[in-house]
Amino acid sequence: MNRTAQIARQFREVHFGENWSASSLKEILEGVTWQEATTKVYSFNTIAALVYHMHYYVEAVSKVLAGEGLYASDNRSFDHPPIRSREDWNALLEKTWKDAENMAALIEKLPESSLDKDFSDPKYGNYYRNIYGVIEHIYYHMGQVVLIKKMIGEKKEN
């Protein structure tokens, strides 16, 4: 398996499972209601905000992989549309899964030689750094989601 195929596999695994860590974003979000997704715990971001934030970078990197420019801004990465219903929450999740599969397909199509090339602008590093950075970023925020879910569950029990 070449490097781009391996990276695409790892990207799918962080979203859909069957990875070494035995956890995935889809599994962690399974059963989370829109009310739970929008519950504020202390000063933490909500689960919905974290899902949007993770997806924001998937979408930004996917656009570059598709030949577009990089037009993302860290300042806007939490500016999600309001989640006021089950339909809003399900729409965010469906977009997240669809765009994750799309990015994995774009990674698979990327020539392996491109991994070491500059990503959009040399200041952002190479393609490998940016693609793998998205995977690391998702694992980081998945941990936060798990903790917030536990805190919300404990609130319900009390």
What would the keywords be for this entry?
single chain; about 160 residues; mainly alpha; Four Helix Bundle (Hemerythrin (Met), subunit A); 6 helices
Describe the model.
The protein has 158 residues and is mainly α. The protein has one domain (3-152): dinb family like domain (Four Helix Bundle (Hemerythrin (Met), subunit A), Up-down Bundle), CATH 1.20.120. It contains 6 helices and no strands. α1 (3-16) packs parallel to α6 and α4 (47-65) packs parallel to α5. The longest helix is centred in the C-terminal third of the chain and has 31 residues, at 127-157. The radius of gyration is 16 Å and the shape is globular. The mean pLDDT is 95.
SS field, number of helical segments: 6
Which sheet architecture does the biggest sheet show?
none
From the 3D coordinates, which CATH architecture would you assign? Up-down Bundle
Q: How many whole angstroms does the radius of gyration measure?
A: 16 Å
Q: Which of globular, elongated, flat, extended, rod-shaped describes the shape?
A: globular
- Order of H and E elements: HHHHHH
Q: Mean pLDDT, nearest integer?
A: 95
CATH level-four homologous superfamily name: dinb family like domain
